[in-house]
């Protein structure tokens, strides 16, 4: 029996404030793992390619208005519509590097003033990440990077609240990485943490659901 084809892939999520470096580090980690011969895909939430994703995209661009709870549930639905595919990929041995996930969903909506438990409820039953790589950066420093644009949430006071809720959501899957280090130094830390996680999953770490 071919053991490698039985081994499952890992669900690895990058989280952090806007401009913390998630998208750049996802791309670097993805190409590193691919160049090591691993089966790996890069995903991101919101997934703007679906019908729900297009509603979210227009909301984020301030092109449409939605009730706070309605948009929260759309973000969650956008993860639910990908759940079955996610499980199939992981079980068939593909590792997923995911740019934002349920923690973004809860932190952003809670920062608007919605109840934390209410925000967590629709995420329950989604696949729990094996590893959350949290790029830690003070909101003031993040704001200095390229400056915030016109995005709905790109305001310093709001980002400070998001940071507090992220902090409250930390669980055993989290590794906090200093996002203020040089890009190369962050990249090296993420490589090591990701490789450790992938090995644990290959060696039988069970797949479980949120919330841990
Ligand atoms: N949202 C939500 O409300 N609910 C949900 O469920 C989900 C999301 C999933 C989606 O934005 C928005 O939706 C987001 C949360 C909300 N809110 N906002 N705003 P997005 O994910 O599409 O946002 P983005 O614009 O793609 O990414 P970002 O978060 O703003 O940035 P990032 O991906 O973390 O950073 P980056 O693009 O990799 O880097 C930013 C800049 O910093 C760039 O110029 C880099 O070269 C520079 N950089 C990166 N790393 C470093 C280091 N180490 N040193 C110096 N400079 C660096
Ligand atoms: Mg990004």
TrEMBL record:
Class of the enzyme per the UniProt entry, highest EC level: transferase
GO BP, sorted A to Z: dTDP biosynthetic process; dTTP biosynthetic process; dUDP biosynthetic process
Listed pathway(s): Pyrimidine metabolism; dTTP biosynthesis
Annotated keywords: ATP-binding, Kinase, Nucleotide biosynthesis, Nucleotide-binding, Transferase
Superkingdom in the source lineage: Eukaryota
Key word Zinc present: no
Any one GO CC term of the record: cytosol
An example molecular function term from Gene Ontology annotations: dTMP kinase activity
Family: Belongs to the thymidylate kinase family.
The name this protein goes by in its record: Thymidylate kinase
Residues of the full protein shown: 46 to 257 of 259
